[in-house]
Amino acid sequence: MSAYRVTARRVGEWWALEVPDLPGVFSQAKRLDQADESAREAIAVMLDVEPEDVIVEIEPVLPQEAKDVVAAAKSAQREARKAADREREAMQRAAAVLTKQLSQRDASRFLGVSFQRVNQLLKSYSLADRGQPARRKATGGNAAKAPGRPKNERRTKTAA
């Protein structure tokens, strides 16, 4: 099996595909997710092999402005993840401190979240203190049901 680098440049509504290591091998694809198959087929025809025997690495080429905005977006995503981590840690610490003297319901009013969220914050905070990642509980079909009328019991009207 041979591996080839394929450059993909946007030309109008199509991606123009070129294989620098094989002069004269060109193809096109409407969408970038179709470039792999199209390039493998073009290379296979040129080399007289099966497309499954060809490995390609698609390298999209973007204009500088597009590269800049993609880099800015990825940077903003990283910053948002860091901010979300700081917010989670601050909320966990606040929940822990508040519930030393207040109920979870009272703490929830100060934090602007539900008392159930305060409980989650406390659980994940105590796990983080022990160096363990917080885990979600799996809820399956065997979860306890709220007490009430049996499923097959019917309501009947009584005369007044």
UniProtKB/TrEMBL annotation:
Residues 150-160 have a biased composition (Basic and acidic residues). Residues 14-49 form the HicB-like antitoxin of toxin-antitoxin system domain. The keyword ATP-binding does not apply. Keywords: Coiled coil. Residues 73-101 form a coiled coil. Residues 129-160 are annotated as: Disordered. This is Type II toxin-antitoxin system HicB family antitoxin.
